[in-house]
Write a structure and sequence with these properties.
Low-confidence stretches of chain A: none
CATH superfamily of the largest domain in chain A: GAF domain
Number of domains of chain A: 2
Order of helices and strands of chain A: HEHHEEHEEEHHHEEEH
Largest interface: A-B, 69 and 70 residues
Number of strands of chain A: 9
Oligomer: homodimer
Strand content of chain A: 15-25%
CATH architecture of the largest domain in chain A: 2-Layer Sandwich
Helix content of chain A: 40-55%
DNA sequence: TGCCGTCGTTTCACCTGGTGTAACCTCATC
DNA sequence: GATGAGGTTACACCAGGTGAAACGACGGCA
């Protein structure tokens, strides 16, 4: 993105003040003055603005500033997927710079894999963009197969059971569990998943190909990270030998970042 | 307070942008442009700033802005007391302007009444300030007695039981429940509580006096609202005849505001 | 009661920094 | 490859953000 946009000092400082109020649950002007180093008139104006914006309030009784309870309305608790996507984004960006091919991040949700982040914008190659929020099929896509292969048996059973009831032809593979189990074993020993041959028509200017690895937290698959490229540019073997290591490393970094975040939250 | 402080436009607009992003869970620049009416370069700069401040992020995959999950760190869930205090403050301010004597707002917590808001700053008379956060005794203070008198019997029993185990001499009245019950009945029929004679030494330049009424939500006492004045300025009878109506009306308004807020939250 | 120190508020003049128009670039669609 | 929509950059104007300094309110102390 290489954005040369300048930021707005007045706003940045206002946010600093807000954070300072949050940090102390209540704060006097003097304390904020000491904490932030801003001039008192400046603080007064900013706190007035925060107050009018519904983020802070000033108590009558002690003239101290507090976080407005109305502020809770602005902060709907973020989903796990949001958190993972946010931690993953810079790492995926870095990966894309090294590898040049784009990668996607997906989570299992409701019988499908949902794309929650993607670096397709970052690559100069004509792969399909507009993928965010779309879903791909568990049994057909590289990410779905990686998710299954590295999930505990109980989770796998549950997902398969769910897919048996699906009307979608792409999910009908769930009716032959034995076959699925064989592929999953192969994926586990290889360390990565490819998509079911013939699936993935969504890369338009020629067939695309993809591999996927899991983002693991203990035994749980948090998400899956894929790498895509036009099929005519390289074979799976070539890509694996060149980039599988980087892909796995990125997945591990994502897991580590999310884990670090979890600790803070508790 | 009558504050002549000016607010900061850049900050106010930045908060608007943030709210706009919150409103749509994710938003393109174009959408924010339409929603806020701000120029796009302005939006870019503000969003950049929000991003750096950890409140927003821009997804790689679709270039859309979302609320950062890091914003969660700023958000400590506000307590009920905070919410009540915030709703009550402007009403207490108004009351104080009419009546000229200050009022306090308290909630029962852990065997005592905690002062969570106060309009003592607003009154020109030399009553004790610095009350926020202090606690007063349930059986002795006007607010504590109002709390008990208008609470359901089960709650009253629980509180009395708690106070029996207190070391504080001011709580020893709990050892004669029958006497307490008689006072509570009297308070209920009068519609307001006064403090136990002799209690309330904390109004310094001469004894102070106070009456208190409950802020009711259904059968629950959310908080208690008191009105204080120097004992030599007026008798309880005079104050009751002049101001009890206003005090009760204010308590009812507080209850209504909090109830309205609750509905939004659900 | 008067003095003093602390903390909050107001004033005001400087000039930085926020602002929007206009031009430009990128990408998707047909 | 033309068209249009959405996103970004450049630039020049001047509103508006800024902090020093003065002022005011309050509490503590003796």
């Amino acid at each position: 993105m290489r954005t040369g946009v300048k930021s707005i000092r007045a706003l940045a400082r206002g946010l600093e003040v807000f954070k300072a109020v949050v940090k102390r649950r209540d704060a006097s002007l003097q304390q904020l003055y000491e904490d932030t180093g801003l001039a008192k008139p400046t603080l007064l104006r900013m706190l007035k603005t925060l107050e009018e914006g519904g983020l802070a309030r000033r108590s009558l009784g002690d003239n101290r500033y507090r976080v407005s309870s109305g502020a809770r309305l602005f902060f709907l608790p973020p989903s796990d997927a949001d958190l993972i996507a946010e931690r993953a984004a810079p790492l995926m960006d870095a990966l894309c710079r090294e590898v040049l091919w784009p990668s996607d991040l997906g989570v299992y949700s409701d019988g499908a894999i949902q794309i929650i982040e993607s670096s397709r914008y970052q690559t100069p190659f004509p792969v399909n963009r507009h993928l965010m929020g779309y879903t791909v099929h568990v049994l057909m896509s590289a990410m779905g197969r990686a998710h299954l292969a590295f999930s505990p048996p109980a989770v796998v059973r549950e997902i398969i059971e769910r897919l048996r009831q699906s009307d979608d032809p792409y999910d009908w593979g769930a009716r032959d569990p034995a076959k699925i189990m064989r592929s999953l074993a192969a994926i586990r020993s290889a360390g990565y998943a490819v998509r079911e041959p013939g699936y993935g028509g969504w890369v338009r200017p020629g067939q695309g190909d993809a591999i996927a690895v899991p983002v693991l937290q203990g035994r749980r698959v948090l998400a899956c990270l894929s790498l895509s490229w036009p099929a005519d540019a390289a074979t799976v073997k070539q890509i694996v030998s060149r980039h599988l290591g980087q892909l796995k490393a990125t997945a591990a970094e994502i897991a580590a970042k999310v884990a670090a975040e979890r600790d803070v939250g508790s």
